[in-house]
TrEMBL record:
InterPro entries: Frizzled/SFRP, Frizzled_dom, Frizzled_dom_sf, Netrin_domain, TIMP-like_OB-fold
Annotated signal peptide: 1-18
All residue ranges annotated as the NTR domain in the record: 159-283
Cystine connections: C103-C127
Biological processes per GO annotation: canonical Wnt signaling pathway; cell differentiation; determination of dorsal identity; developmental pigmentation; negative regulation of BMP signaling pathway; non-canonical Wnt signaling pathway; protein stabilization
Taxonomic placement: Eukaryota, Metazoa, Chordata, Craniata, Vertebrata
Pfam families in the cross-refs: Fz
GO MF terms held by the record: Wnt-protein binding
Record localization: Secreted
Listed transmembrane segments: none
GO CC annotation terms, alphabetical: extracellular space
Assigned protein family: Belongs to the secreted frizzled-related protein (sFRP) family.
Record-given protein name: Sizzled
Length: 283
């Protein structure tokens, strides 16, 4: 995963304004293998694109796929529209660039994900380079209501402690000290093109639900792993799964913080006893 961010920064490092809008262009069908932009809402793109790439198979398609892991984090609902407006600009009678406001919105949400991996927002995506006039560019046309803001969201954090073979009291104290406690099987794929490297296998079971929502928690934990790949790399090996008890809290700004993890092996009777006794336990 860390390699993706290096590749992504390199792929976007060419000066954006080096593209000459007056040069000759052509329209081509967005190819099926260009998964990042295949369902973006239009079927034809203009070449060269706004990054100056004109070779569809040699440049555009492989470089577009470098952004897929970032999009999988869900860092912003319009990150795909923003990136594809540059990688695969819609083929119309006029050139449509992303608006500065769209760039700012995506940057403010997605730059922290890049920063979590130790990389800055690419200079080639400096938002000052994009037009400010909303009617001459691709604007943030979707307005997101308060409901989405109320959902807990994953964010970059320091890696939580992992405690092997804990005492029953240690587990019970962790349940008491934090907002929630869940059991989840974390899985790490061997890298395959287009698939998320980390995922949550099966159902998430609640020990203490707290502010988490049943229908959203599996997705929330997967987003946490995709953002905090440095931590996830420690938690599970490639091609393997590991069952964990996770405890944490939801911060006042709505971000999820995972504080302690207990690997749950078959021999860990203390964890099994703690989860059973919790229903009748008073902190």
């Amino acid at each position: 995963m860390a390699l993706f961010f290096i590749l992504a920064v390199l792929a976007m490092s060419c000066p954006l304004m080096a593209f000459d809008i007056g040069q000759s262009t052509r329209c081509v069908t967005i190819p099926n293998q260009m998964k990042v932009c295949k369902d973006v809402g239009y079927s034809e793109m203009r070449l060269p694109n706004f990054l100056g790439h004109s070779n569809l198979e040699g440049e555009v398609v492989p470089r577009s796929e470098d952004w897929k892991p970032l999009l999988q984090t869900g860092c912003h609902p319009q990150a795909q529209a923003f990136l594809c407006s540059l990688i695969a600009p819609v083929c119309l009678d006029t050139f449509i660039q992303p608006c500065r406001s769209l760039c700012v919105a995506v940057r403010d949400s997605c730059a922290p994900v890049l920063a979590c991996q130790g990389h800055p927002w690419p200079e080639a995506l400096d938002c000052d380079r994009f037009p400010a006039e909303e009617d001459m560019c691709l604007s943030p046309h979707v307005k997101f209501g308060h409901f989405a803001k109320d959902l807990p969201k994953a964010a970059c954090q320091n890696c939580p402690s992992v405690e092997e073979a804990p005492a029953m009291k240690t587990v019970m104290d962790a349940f008491c000290q934090h907002d929630f406690a869940v059991t989840a099987k974390l899985h790490r794929r061997r890298l395959l093109m287009g698939e998320p490297e980390f995922e949550v296998e099966g159902r998430v079971e609640f020990v203490r639900q707290g502010p988490l929502l049943p229908y959203d928690t599996q997705h929330l934990l997967q987003q946490w792993m995709l953002i905090n790949t440095r931590c996830a790399n420690v938690l599970v090996r490639p091609g393997r799964s590991q069952l964990y008890v996770l405890t944490g809290s939801v911060q006042p700004d709505g971000t999820l913080t995972i504080s302690r993890l207990f690997p749950w092996h078959k021999k860990d009777a203390n964890i099994a006893v703690a989860t059973r006794k919790w229903k009748h336990h008073r902190c």
